[in-house]
Specification:
Length: about 130
């Protein structure tokens, strides 16, 4: 079992991304929830059983019907994606592209929150 320091990741989110993050908390082992200023949230999940398995999920379905997720579950449906098993759900479960997200949790968190920040700035410049 590989434990990820999700409390530390939460601190990174709250401090370095205070312009978009309301708060972050650890609901369980190897998980982190980040509440964003627009009312959406980001969930990070790291498998306790499968080394290296993860999901970085931005949930926006209640706001505009979208979701964004980097994960590396080896779904056969996406095996034609060049970075498979890594892939990115770009707006919906069925729109999938390559994922170049880092395998290092701190780096990946920053990459993902940079993406979130840019998307929020584009859609809601006042955030």
């Amino acid at each position: 079992m590989t434990l990820i320091d999700t409390r530390h990741l939460g601190t990174i989110a709250e401090v370095e991304y205070a312009d978009i993050v309301v708060n972050a908390w650890v609901p369980g082992l190897n998980t982190l929830r980040i509440l964003l200023r627009d009312g959406s949230f980001v969930d990070l999940w790291y498998s306790l059983k499968l080394v290296g398995r993860y999901s970085y999920h931005w949930e926006r379905r209640s706001l505009d019907g979208t979701l964004y997720r980097h994960d590396n579950a080896p779904h056969q449906r996406w095996e034609t994606v060049a970075t498979w098993p890594k892939h990115f759900h770009d707006g919906s479960e069925n729109t999938v592209t390559e994922s170049r997200l880092s395998d290092e949790p701190e780096v990946a968190l920053r990459e993902f929150l940079d993406f979130v920040r840019a998307a929020l700035a584009q859609s809601s410049p006042d955030l």
